[in-house]
Write a structure and sequence with these properties.
about 525 residues, alpha+beta, Nucleotidyltransferase, domain 5, 4 domains, six-stranded mixed beta sheet, five-stranded antiparallel beta sheet, 13 strands, binds iron/sulfur cluster, IS1182_transpos, Tnp_DDE_dom, Transposase, IS4 family
Length: about 525
């Protein structure tokens, strides 16, 4: 019989000892406001900078006065600093910002633990456009004084930012007329109800009347904007098809980088190449950049006090008008001008014409002011046309000649009209000189600055500051919102390039002194 072996009993392992969590307790802790943020925290920089700016325009609008009854207003320097900090942290909602003020250390330090309600924050943000523009000019003065702006070279570009409206809010004239009528009737009806005593809830009635009046005003604005849109159309049919947004009448449908067409504004931004600081900005309703360069340079002059020495912009801005405008303003302009041959090749390809039957295949008969085609037929001069910056003389073949021609398929895919040939005439002198300048290596090197300089702030404002869609409605308020983005961007550049290096040098210096 095998021996009986007693089982080995392992000693029980003691349970791990962890700290208990007591959520039933209440604790009062002292908060030392000054220690909420470190010495190089950006709220300190923002407060220091806003303290240097002239805020008299803001203070002048405050109705509360010392020594008189009534509560004190919030300090405009605080509201300005709070919004600059909020935008730099991608916070664009006034409600969320107000909540953040209760626990976010940077905001707690700024406001000394105070909390501003969202209504006050919203009102401060959406008004004061004039003061905000002056602040940008002042800020640029500070940056210029510190050598961060030279205006030797300014790169310019536009970016589309979605308006506070959906694509489905666009209506044609007839629908708009009905909406205007409905809005007017509602205002009259609510005023009639008010005159007869109202519903008994005065506050609600007043809110309804205010909303009806605002809608009525918006419909009137929509009618005005529709006329502007119609005036820009070429044909009667296009004018009949013209539409405008009922919720954001001043916005226009614009194509974005992802090919989506959305109600938007075109934000034009000029950037000093020295340190990529924004030195000019404006908002336009035009989806095309072609006529925006001169206005942008005027903005730079207004904000900084003078035109830049050089300006650089892409092909969207480069045309005869902008070349002429820049010459007139004494600005050395660098851009991208399409070669007429390339343009002509593209239009021939679109029309299905064989490259072998291009304009060079036709012989100019100077004496008779006509052309002779490869089949020996005569094309008569019909008109002069302008495409971009170049003048062309146009000659038309007879449809019966082209219809029965052996080269018809290659030369005139639509014989019912007869082949139309455009012969390029002499180019405008300024444009020809510009084209020659852009062929030089030096000009190409300057033009290469454009992408990295001009596109960087656009991307920053959209991606880092989160302004991809305006929160505010109306062109004036959208301009103010974009201005906040531009100011925040420039303030952050100032912190990075000027304020933080000085603070860090002081901190290191203090450390070295203590060690010594
Ligand atoms: S298609 Fe017309 S223009 Fe062209 S070669 Fe023939 S006749 Fe001449």
């Amino acid at each position: 019989m095998p021996p009986v072996v007693a089982p080995v009993i392992e000693p029980e392992k003691p349970k791990a000892k962890v700290k208990p969590i007591d959520r039933s307790q209440g604790v009062l802790r002292p908060v030392i406001v000054e220690e909420l943020v470190g010495p190089d925290h950006k709220v300190r920089a923002i407060w220091e900078l806003t303290g240097q700016l002239d805020l008299s325009g803001y203070y002048g609008k405050i109705q509360s006065q010392e020594g008189k009854a009534g509560s004190s207003a919030w300090n405009p320097q605080l509201l300005l600093s709070v919004w600059l900090y909020a935008y730099s942290e991608q916070v664009t909602s006034a409600r969320y910002l107000s909540t953040l003020m209760e626990y976010e250390p940077g905001l707690m330090w700024l406001a000394g633990l105070g909390v501003v309600n969202y209504w006050t924050l919203n009102a401060f943000r959406s008004s004061h456009q004039e003061e905000l523009s002056k602040l940008l000019a002042e800020l640029l003065g500070v940056l210029s004084h510190e050598g961060l702006i030279t205006l030797e070279c300014v790169a310019h570009d536009g970016t589309k930012i979605q308006a506070q409206a959906g694509s489905d809010t666009f209506r044609r004239g007839k629908t708009l007329e009905k909406e205007i009528l409905k809005a007017q009737e509602l205002v009259v009806e609510l005023e009639r109800q008010e005159a007869s005593g109202g519903s008994g809830n005065a506050r609600r009635d007043a809110a309804q009347r205010r909303a009806a009046r605002e809608r009525n005003e918006r419909m009137k604005l929509a009618a005005e904007e529709l006329e502007k849109v119609r005036a820009a159309k070429k044909s009667e049919q296009e004018r009949a098809e013209a539409r405008v947004s009922l919720t954001e009448p001043e916005s226009r449908n614009m194509k974005h980088g992802n090919n989506a067409i959305e109600p938007s504004y075109n934000v034009q931004i000029s950037v000093d190449a020295e340190q990529k600081i924004i030195v000019g900005f404006c908002l336009t309703q035009s989806s095309s950049d072609s006529g925006c360069l001169q206005e942008a340079m005027e903005q730079v002059k207004e904000t900084v006090g003078r035109y830049p020495e050089q300006s650089v912009a892409d092909g969207g801005f480069t045309n005869q008008a902008s070349i002429h405008d820049m010459n007139q303003s004494g600005i050395d302009f660098y851009g991208s001008l399409a070669e007429p041959e390339m343009r002509q090749a593209a239009s021939m390809k679109a029309a299905g014409i064989d490259p072998a039957f291009g304009p060079s295949a036709f012989q100019v008969l100077t004496e008779s002011k006509s052309l002779q085609c490869p089949a020996g037929k005569i094309l008569e001069y019909v008109r002069q046309s302008k495409k971009g910056d170049t003048t062309y003389w146009q000659y038309q073949a007879e449809s019966k000649d082209c219809g029965g021609c052996e080269y018809q398929k290659q030369c005139c895919p639509r014989p019912e009209k007869g082949r139309l040939v455009s012969i390029r005439m002499e180019e405008n002198e300024e444009v020809a000189a510009f084209r020659e300048k852009m062929k030089t290596e030096a000009a190409q090197q300057i033009y290469k600055k454009r992408g990295p300089v001009a596109e960087f702030p656009n991307a920053w404002i959209k991606e880092k500051l989160g302004i991809r869609k305006f929160r505010l409605r109306g062109m004036a308020k959208a301009t103010t919102e974009a201005l906040w983005g531009v100011l925040t961007y420039d303030v952050q550049q100032w912190i990075r390039l000027s304020w933080r290096p000085k603070v860090m040098a002081a901190v290191v210096g203090n450390g070295a002194t203590q060690l010594a």
